[in-house]
Request: fold
Amino acid sequence: MFIRDTECTRDTPVTFGKQDQPVYGKCVRISPGIDGRTDSAHFRKTYLPELLPLEEYDRIVVLLSGGKDSVACLYKLLELGVPREKIECWHHNIDGGHPLRRMDWRCIGNYVRALTEAEGIKLRVSYRVNGFFGELYRIGASEPIEWIDPVSQKVKQCRLSPNYIKCQQLREQAPEDLEMLLKRYGYRMKFPAKSADLSRRWCSAYLKICVADAVVSNLDRLGELKKQKEQCKVLIVSGERRGESSGRAKYNEMELHRTNAERRSHRTVHQWRAVIDYSEKDVWEVLKRHHVNPHPCYRIGWNRCSCAMCIFSTPSLFAGIREIYPEEYEALKKDEEILGFTLDNKKCLDDFVGDAKSCVCRKDQAAIRSILTGSFSKRQIFVKNWRYPAGAFHGAKGGPC
Reply:
C-alpha cells in the first residue's frame, strides 16, 4: 500500500501525489485510505472512521515544520479547495528564543514565514521559552509555552503551571540550597535518547507535541477558537508518512486529537495525517507542481528537514554540521563534557562521526548562503525551473523516529 523511502527513486511512479480535486463546500467526508486500527486501548480511544466535511471545521491548522511533507500537506488542502482564510500554519520554534544557542537551521523561521506570506496564509509561531537548550539544562519545572499572534504579532503566554510558579518563587527567595529545592520540581541535564519512548526522547514531547497541545487549549480558553458557536471544531493536519519508518507505518491516518474535549470544553479536535500513504516521489511531485523551492537543507544534501542537529542524524549528517556550523558542533562536544552524557546513546560525538564524509553539496550557493546566514525571502519561495534537491531520494535515515 505504501512505498518505503529506502526503496523510492526518481523513477518511482507518482501514485498519491497527483492533483487533488476540490471537495470543499460539497459535504464530502474524507475517509482513510486504510481502515484505522483498533487493536489497542490507545487506538480504540482515538479511533476516527472519517473526517467531517472540511467546511464544517472552524479552523484547519497545518503543523508546518518547513520540511517537504508538511509543505505538501498545505498544498493538498489548497488543492482540495480549502479557502486560505480558513487555514492557519503553526510552526514550533525549537530554539525558543534562547539567547546563545541554536539546535535548528538558522533559516527555518524565515523559510516558513516566506512560504506563508507568499501564499497569503496566517502563521502562528509557538515555542517553549529557551527551547532545546533551556530544557536540556533544566533544573526545576519546564519553561512556559508562548506563541506569537499572527495578526497583532504580540507575544502571548500559555497559563503557567503551578510548579513553574513555585520555582519562580524559590528563585526570588534565593535560598542557599536553591538547586536542591528546584530539583524537587524536575531535572533534565541529559540529551534526549534515540528511542521511540517520548518520555526518554523528550525533544519531540516537550518542544513540539506539548507546545501544540498547550496552544490549542489556551486559544480555546481565551475564546479565540470559538466564534458564535458553542461547539468549536478544529482539524490539525500533520505530515507523517508510513514510508519514513516502521513506527510511522503503524499510525492511523485520522484520529481524535489529544486535545479533543467535546463534553468538558465543547471542543472537537481531529487530526489528519494527510500524506501518510504518499511516497517520497509523491511528495516531491506536489512541490514540483506548485514550483515550491525546497528548504535549503535539502538543497545542500540533507535527506530530512529535522532539526539541524537532530539526535537521529547519521555520521555523514553530523560531519556536514561540523563543516557548515563548526562552532555549534564544538559546543555540542562541550555539552557532552558538562553533562556527563553523550548525544549518541553509546559514544561521544567525535567517535560517532569518525571519518564519515560530509553530506554537504555546495553546488547551490543560494542555499548555502541561507544555511549560513539565515536569510530567506518571499521572492525565493517559487522557482520556475524546479529540480530535485541534492538530498532527494537518500532514504529516511537520520530523521525523527
